[in-house]
Amino acid sequence: MTESILRLVDVTRTHGTGETAVHALRGVSLEVRPGELVAVMGPSGSGKSTLLNVAGGLDKVTSGEVLIEGEPLSTMSALQLAALRRRRVGFVFQDFNLIPSLTAGENVALPLELDGLSPRKARHFASDALDLVGLRELIDRFPDKMSGGQQQRVAIARALVGDRRLVMADEPTGALDSHTGEGVLRVLRERCDSGAAGLLVTHEARHAAWADRVVFLRDGVVVDTTGSPDEIHDLLAGAGH
């Protein structure tokens, strides 16, 4: 059996204590294997974004364990977690998180340069990543000179640059028109087909259809999961999406 790239084991995440405690995740277990794209769906407040944050080591679990390529995140120092995110994990955030003072190429190349790659080599990889999302010609443009959709595609290129084994995206097509959004999902699908693992949070049934499996969250609990196209259609129809 192929080793999972991402594995969550009985993960809980609680914010606060006592009567005001918010249980964002309640005993979630999930595996994503090489070549697999898993979509996560659910109503607002169901725990989808929290799931991404703990899966990538941006937030700590309250209990349970997260493993990336068999390595438990709970045993890693802050420096080790930062190195893991630079080298093996790519994030696409809802609000882009681009650095305004850096060009598109510099934003995409930044994780590679922080990891010690020369600026020349990092720019080469950044150019290739921008080409994947159709923005190679904007490599020297600053974020404030781009549309929201262009900024989103730069953020996606940054998540894909280098040898990222795990790519996680939180509503990555939110700022894009339908045609460009489909193109971005195709890039994510192709990256998974080439051996990476993908975790996609989406509200859109047509976007979830790109995935191999759909996991449905409600109140921090996995309430359903499905794999085949017919099962995905039935699940999404039943969920009202």
From TrEMBL:
Single GO molecular function: transmembrane transporter activity
Q: What is this protein called?
A: ABC transporter ATP-binding protein
Q: Which SUPFAM superfamilies match?
A: P-loop containing nucleoside triphosphate hydrolases (SSF52540)
GO cellular component term, pick one: membrane protein complex
Keywords of this entry? ATP-binding, Nucleotide-binding, Transport
Q: Which superkingdom, per the lineage?
A: Bacteria
Q: Where is the ABC transporter domain?
A: 6-235
Stored PANTHER family: ABC TRANSPORTER RELATED (PTHR24220:SF685), IMPORT ATP-BINDING PROTEIN (PTHR24220)
Organism of origin is: Nostocoides jenkinsii Ben 74
